[in-house]
């Protein structure tokens, strides 16, 4: 018997170096609303979500930049309904001069129809926005492995 019958991902907490900068980025790219924010001495925090549902918490308590060489978060992925929404997010990111792992929308695998964009937030945290359908079948950027794996 399962200990938790209805287990779901709740929210994701991210350590950031500059809460003001990260708040601006996440609100612009994902249209999150600030559900709460506060301070504990020098440390600041913010709860972000949509329709009163908590999605991401930001914790200003870090130095440096995200590195994929240490254990921990690989990337944070958000699903949208259509590939047009992915492309609209890409446009917003380009206006912010965000760093992309690949050029434009790419499929998740060889000749796949799901796909998205892979990019970094201001602290280098790797993010993805994808749609389950609508990415034109094409060669994946990484042959023989999922696109969202080794980047």
TrEMBL record:
Gene3D superfamilies assigned to the protein according to its UniProt record, in alphabetical order: 2,3-Dihydroxybiphenyl 1,2-Dioxygenase, domain 1 (3.10.180.10)
Keywords, sorted A to Z: Metal-binding
One Pfam entry name: Glyoxalase
Coiled-coil region list: none
Keyword Nucleotidyltransferase: no
PROSITE patterns (alphabetical): VOC (PS51819)
VOC domain segment(s): 8-132
Entry annotated with the keyword Metal-binding: yes
PANTHER family reported for this sequence: FOSFOMYCIN RESISTANCE PROTEIN FOSX, LYASE, PUTATIVE-RELATED-RELATED
Protein name: VOC family protein
Native organism: Streptomyces stephensoniae
Lineage, top ranks: Bacteria, Bacillati, Actinomycetota, Actinomycetes, Kitasatosporales
């Amino acid at each position: 018997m399962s200990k938790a019958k209805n287990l779901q991902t709740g929210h994701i907490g991210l350590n950031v170096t500059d809460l003001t900068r990260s708040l601006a980025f996440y609100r612009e790219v994902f249209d999150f609303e600030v559900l709460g924010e506060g301070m504990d001495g020098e440390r600041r925090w913010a709860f972000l979500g949509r329709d009163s549902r908590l999605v991401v918490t930001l914790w200003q308590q870090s130095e440096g930049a995200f590195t994929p060489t240490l254990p921990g978060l690989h990337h944070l992925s958000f699903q949208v309904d259509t590939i047009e929404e992915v492309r609209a997010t890409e446009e917003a990111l380009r206006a912010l001069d965000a760093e992309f792992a690949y050029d434009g929308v790419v499929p998740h695998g060889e000749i796949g129809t799901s796909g998205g964009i892979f990019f970094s937030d201001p602290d280098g945290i790797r993010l993805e926005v994808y749609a389950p359908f609508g990415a034109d079948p094409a060669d994946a950027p990484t042959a023989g492995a999922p696109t969202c794996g080794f980047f």
